[in-house]
Amino acid sequence: MKKDFRNIFKQLHLWVSVPFGLAITVICFTGAMLVFEKEITALCTAEIRSVEPKGAPLPLGVLAEKVACTLPDDVKVTGISVPASDEEAYKVNLSKPRRAAVYVDQYTGEIKGRSERLPFFNVMFRMHRWLMDSQPKDGGIFWGKMIVGASTLAFVAILITGLVVWLPRNRKSLRNRLKIVAAKGWQRFWYDLHVAGGFYALLLLLAMSLTGLTWSFQWYRNGFYNVFGIETQQNTQVGGKSDNKKDGKGNEARKERKEKAGNPYEYWQEAYDAVMAKESEFKQITVSDGSISVSRGGFGNQRASDKYIFDKRTGKITGYEPYSENAPSSKMRGWIYSVHAGTWGGVFTQVLYFLAAMLGATLPLTGYYLWIKRLLRKRKRQ
Fold first, then answer.
1. What pLDDT score does 56 carry?
2. 3-state SS assignment for residue 245
3. How large is the greatest C-alpha to C-alpha distance in the chain, in angstroms?
């Protein structure tokens, strides 16, 4: 009975792997390439990210105004991120395109350069998420996203069935299963890499897959949140006419509103100073329109931050929202990202995630090799 049960899982493991194997290899490999994106990008863009301290930094409002003067009418400054180090440039966030920002020398006001994803990582990200596909403008099926989601679901099934198939019956067998022998020929090496590699990377690959699926399927995301007792709400868009017209009248209206509103960044510095008087340790402080978030870094949710609310007309702090009181859904989103990307434990977990993802990329390839070798042996016997 146990043998029949194991054979069923063996067949499931094989026939789920065959159609999805190559996609899984691509997803795992590109995921491994993205693990250290932030660190590599920081090294490659050190010239625009670093500054030489020269006295006191310029007020945040002044920096925001300097950047705002260089922007088109339909783009505005949405916030300024202040790093803990005095030798790192301030990051001025823009309203569009998504995640757009520029680095500014806080001592001189010089705009040092744009914050952009490096071309290599842009390709890796699009390959990892959508297999280089793009969202159809007509609302059709997003095939790249669909294939990645289906392949990730299949990968979960492959990992679980693989564990059942190769789970050793005793300690001695377990010891042998965890060895990778390179001195007994290529076939033994690929077999050991497939089996032992799968065991070593199993938990981390499952963590990556189960969290990654939340970006692929809405039904899965709702179920995932519900497992942790968190209710999700559908985002709804309210129809209506937009004020952001692209014709001349629209631009004139925007300019008129700006003139009436005055300098929207006037009291950012006062609010920032008030928060700095209370905060001693932080990774980054981001000042935006009416709120200030304080990111502390460390272990755990890398998107965790405390939030201060301030009066935009005076800069006076009017409220405080610690991370512990954030909405459960907000905390969950941060944890999902941190667990999926491996950033929750710092460089140590990032290294483990990189190795696990690379092993994950080899599993389908070694599996194909062993399967084809077995087919060839059967043909020779016939």
1. 94
2. coil
3. 87
Give 232: exposed, middle or buried? Use CB within 10 Å, 0-12, 13-18, 19+: middle
Q: State how far Cα 217 lies from the chain centre.
A: 16
Q: What is the pLDDT of residues 309-364, one digit of tens each?
A: 999 999 999 999 999 999 999 999 999 999 999 999 999 999 999 999 999 999 99
> How far is C-alpha 314 from the chain's CA centre?
36
372 burial type by CB count under 10 A (0-12 exposed, 13-18 middle, 19+ buried): exposed
What is the crossing angle of helices 328-341 and 186-212, to 10°?
A: 160
| Cα(333)–Cα(88) distance, integer angstroms | 28
For residue 284, the surrounding DSSP H or E stretch is strand 284-288
Report d(CA 308, CA 317) in Å as an integer: 7
Per the structure block, which two tokens stand in for 303? 């998107």
Is there a contact between 55 and 107 (Cβ–Cβ < 8 Å)?
yes
Q: What is the pTM of this model?
A: 0.87
- Alpha carbons 104 and 101: distance in angstroms, whole number: 10
Sign of the torsion angle spanned by Cα atoms 287, 291, 296, 300: negative
